[in-house]
Design goal:
The protein is an all-alpha fold. It has one domain. 85% of the residues lie in helices and 0% in strands. It is built from two helices and no strands. α1 packs antiparallel against α2. The radius of gyration is 21 Å and the shape is elongated.
Length: 98
C-alpha cells in the first residue's frame, strides 16, 4: 500500500511540475511578445501595462493547454520508464505486446 501511495504521489507531483513549467513558459513568452509588439508598433507604449497584459494573456493561453499537455508528457515518461524496465528484465521492447 505504501508503494502504491508513493507511486501515485510521484505522478501527481510530476503532473503538477509539468503544469507549472508550461504556465511559467507561457507567462514569460507572453511578457516578451507583448513588450516586443509594443516596442515595434506603438509610439508611446507603457511597458508596465504591456508586461502585465502579456503576463495575463500568456498565463491564460498556456493554462488552457497545460493540464492536457502535462498528462501527455506523463504518459510519455511512463512509457519510457516501462520500456526501460522491460529491457532490464531481458525482454525486447517489441516483444511486450506479443
Amino acid at each position: 500500500m505504501l508503494t502504491f501511495m508513493r507511486s501515485a504521489l510521484r505522478w501527481v507531483f510530476g503532473w503538477a511540475y509539468y503544469v507549472c513549467l508550461i504556465c511559467l513558459s507561457g507567462a514569460v513568452l507572453g511578457v516578451l511578445s507583448h513588450l516586443l509588439w509594443g516596442w515595434c508598433f506603438y509610439d508611446d507604449f507603457d511597458p508596465v501595462y504591456m508586461t502585465a497584459l502579456g503576463y495575463l494573456h500568456g498565463l491564460k493561453y498556456a493554462g488552457v493547454w497545460a493540464g492536457g499537455s502535462a498528462l501527455v508528457l506523463c504518459v510519455i515518461r511512463a512509457r519510457r520508464e516501462f520500456l526501460e524496465k522491460q529491457s532490464l528484465i531481458g525482454k525486447d521492447a517489441y516483444d511486450v505486446y506479443e
